[in-house]
Amino acid sequence: MLIIFAALLGGGIFLAQRILYARWWNRGVNVTLQFEKEMVRAGESVKLSEIVENYKRLPLSSLKVKFQCSRYLVFTDCQNGMVTDKYYRNDLFTVMPYQRITRTHQITCPRRGYYGIEGIDLVGADLFFSEELTAERESGAFLYVAPKILSRQEIAPAFRKINGEITAKRYELEDPFTLRGIRDYEPYDELKRINWKASAKTDELKVNERDYTTVNSVRIFMNLEDTGILKSQELVEMSICVCASLVQEFLRQGILVSIFTNGTDCITRERLSMEGMNGPACLDTVYKALARLDVESPMPAFGDCLGRKLFEEASLYTIFISHDRHEDYMELIRSYQKRQGDGFAIICPVEDASEKRPVKGLEEKIIYLCEDRG
User: Does domain 28-146 correspond to CATH entry 3.40.50.720?
Assistant: First the structure.
């Protein structure tokens, strides 16, 4: 009789806890994934915090936290992860009532991009592990990996040529806030420039002579097409690095910068176009926009989406960046040269010096960048 009573009692406890866990196991369970920084540079490391909280009296003897992210986020601790098309993580926790557990993962970011962890899967169990209980949580964790900035040695050939040409093509605009002096009135002067106080003192019309300020502006057109049979992902990425490096230097010099490319934003799916950026305060915006460029989807032809834009405001100094030198693209640049003159440069990343071949009609304008300087 005692054995039967114990069996009934045990069965009752088993059923009770099973019902209890089935209804309440994921109540008050919060899981948060959070990167310590919003943005890092390609090649740098960042920490990811995994926080598990149990705000109830019911303990969780087994809680699996599963999430997936890009395989280009490399976890230092690989014991609980698996890499296939993505990186799949599966961490096991035992969480007592009203307990918070924090684990920190070290991640290396070898490649530019925008990386997010969209969802978290939870797998729990009752006290006797008789069945698996599942739930989902939102994540919202994301990370910008900005393009690498090239060293001065790597980018020097481009800067030497471009800075020289920009300096030669500077133009002056009148500065309305700086008074250089007062001179006699001339018939071509506007009435608003007359200094009435000085005119009354001398009994002759006098006008204000304003000082001049130097204004520099450049446009960058980046072509991310890759029409070769063998795709060159590294050279496409280097083109983006070149763009980031140039923009950083120009903005620090006080030069106005605009960027146009046939690449699209991986979130909005719109073509990247940024105009009139001025000053170092714009750098983070540029880095984030370049990080979100999608170079894996089919790329529209450069001339189709940017041909018309190229000939607008064409008096500004223009920089072309592309590793791909297919004939349609080069012919468009030749047409630009015929109509607008020589106020432009072409930057072409290549794998080695053997790819530095002349381009008909543009030999003096093309700048090759590669690791091999020979």
Answer: no
Burial degree of 5 (CB within 10 A; 0-12, 13-18, 19+): exposed
Contact status, residue 185 vs residue 203, Cβ threshold 8 Å: no
Q: CA–CA separation, 35 vs 338, rounded Å?
A: 51
CA distance 109 to 349: 22
Place of tokens 């797998």: 123
CA 42 to chain centre: 10
CA pair distance 56, 45, nearest whole angstrom? 36
The residue ranges of DSSP E strands in 59-131, in sequence order, are: 60-69, 74-75, 81-83, 87-95, 99-108, 113-125
Q: Structure tokens of 345?
A: 């440069």
Q: How far apart are CA 143 and CA 335, in angstroms?
A: 41
Q: For domain 152-170+216-369, which architecture applies?
A: 3-Layer(aba) Sandwich (3.40)
24, 56 Cβ separation under 8 angstroms: yes
Indicate the pTM of the whole model: 0.82
For residue 125 the two structure tokens come to: 């169990």
Q: What is the tens place of the pLDDT at every residue in 318-362?
A: 999 999 988 899 999 999 998 888 889 999 999 887 777 778 888
- H helices present in the chain, as ranges: 2-24, 152-168, 196-202, 233-252, 283-291, 302-310, 327-340
Domain boundaries, the chain: 28-146, 152-170+216-369, 179-211
